[in-house]
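Encode chain A's predicted structure.
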Amino acid sequence: MKKEILKKGMKYSKERLIDCMGIIILLLVWEMAPRLGLVDRQFFPPFSQVLLFLGKLAVSGVLFIHIAASLQRIFLGLALAVIIAVPVGIVLEGLFPALSRNLLRLFRLLEQVNALPLSLIFILFFGIGELVKVFIIFWSTIWPILFTTIAGVRHVDPLYINMARSLGASKLEIFKKVILPAAAPTIFTGIRSGATYAFFILIAAESMGAYYGVGRLIRSSTFGAVIVIALLGMSLNYLFHIIESNLLDWKKSLGDNDSEAAGG
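Encoded structure for chain A:
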């Protein structure tokens, strides 16, 4: 028994090592290239030097203040985008599919409008402050969430809806028990995509006069800010995966049943 557990543990560790091999090689190259003089250390410092800088900020507590300020802006902008985009997408495609198709081109056009020029107009009305930063994140995240919500509702299998109707379900019951659960995985995919966009635009948002924020770190350490943003983005994506797996646990059960059926 112990040998089997040890064997499984070694196999798991080996698989994880293989998965991380690309990252390990990248970090080794990052560390050695400046030290060997292949690149200028002034513009491309070794990885350990960047970690040392972040460690000093962490010990002083300043790093966590920057992270907290950035996360607050991201969560506010993303939450506002979800609150607006998900209901609009569900109602449009669920109740007014023809109108949804007609408005889709307009939405695609608005998606191409960069948030930064719009933020300048926003500044004229509200001044430079937190609202501008939240608006930039909101505008950049609302479109992937809206489009995936519309796509999720649109691609619900009509067979499920017809079956529910044949069983005497009302429109509200069909919406709550068929359309919404079936579209939920696609909606969550859109929310994760929106979170990714939020981190891409974070530095630009915090360039609008932010005193605290990860984007502010770019002035002191560009690579340090990149590392922190990458780690925060991965952590937030993992958090959404956990939330999705807990809220949509029926997907796992359905997958297990399908596997059992295939095996049987």
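Residues 71 and 116 are 20 Å apart (CA to CA).
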